[in-house]
Amino acid sequence: MAWQNNTAELRGTLAGPPELSHISRGTEYYAVTLITRRLSGARDRANVILPVGLLPCLPEPGEKFWLRGELRSFNNRSGSGSRLMLYIFGQELAPAEDLGEDRNEITLSGALCKPPTWRRTPMGREICDLMLAVNRRYGRSDYLPCIAWGKNALRASAWDVGRSVSLQGRFQSRVYVKTLETGETRERTAYEVSVTAFLPDPEPETEPFLP
Q1: How many CA atoms lie within 13 Å of 177's alpha carbon, on the beta-carbon side?
Q2: Domain span at residue 195?
Q3: Residue 176: half-sphere exposure toward Cβ, Cα within 13 Å
Q4: pTM of this prediction?
């Protein structure tokens, strides 16, 4: 099987009915929210964009479904400044066959496009923030924030911009409080990939040798 540089596979609960997101080249795309539950009980909310052709497979709100696609990004310039927004672009969808554990798996292969940022949490845990550029077909790229922990964080902190990186992780949402220039505080949600493992780089595909 050919290497896929961007795969997302999630299994969770539909939070609400689909809403029209946009129309591109005559095709309607709809936005939904998928909620996945971690083993700890914490919940992650993933924004999902689906082409209209997948809507007949979508269950009712509150029911579970399975989704496979790609993690993508875009710059939202609708407010003040520009914010990087992440979403899952759905390519396959089906109702969940049972009510087992949720699933949240991301596999990426790309290049570091910013210097890694290493730090410690107030509790003493090591963290390293990474920004991965993952190529999409037709010459576009997605810029995906990732966060590594512990030994993975220390390892990644020494990497240079441009290094090829392959990883597995979980798409997570994290609520934080931002202080504005006026002194007001706003609650916001950050989306990122929490790295569970760094992988060996895939072998490049080669054409068969013909004498």
Answers
A1: 4
A2: 6-199
A3: 9
A4: 0.86
